[in-house]
Amino acid sequence: MACISTGADDTCVGPTVSTASDGSYPIARPLLMYTNGEPAGKVGEYLGWIKSDAGQCIILEKGYAPASEVQCS
User: Are the beta carbons of 65 and 22 closer than 8 angstroms?
Assistant: First the structure.
């Protein structure tokens, strides 16, 4: 993975869950999900699950930064 320079000196920041979460990795971006109106049915269920601790733990296990701090076993 690419280590990205953060200034004029020779220091750089690597892409990790920690640096993406704390904002120090300069090209980390949030993933936004939009729906046409209030989500209902299967879409509402999915979005509820993905925002839950169980969904966020899977995101973390796959090497991505969760949307919120979560305690996983």
Answer: no
pLDDT, mean over the chain:
91
Mean pLDDT of 44-50: 97
Crossing angle of helices 53-61 and 41-51, in 10° steps, is 70
What residues does 5 pair with on adjacent strands? Answer: 12
Task: Judge contact between 24 and 4, C-beta under 8 A.
Answer: no
Read out DSSP for 6-57?
Answer: -SSSS-EE---HHHHHHT-STT--------SSS--HHHHHHHHHHHSHHHHH
pTM of the model: 0.75
Task: Say which residue the tokens 């699950």 belong to.
Answer: 49
The neighbouring-strand residues paired with 12 are 5
Spatial distance between the Cα atoms of 72 and 38, rounded to a whole number of angstroms: 29
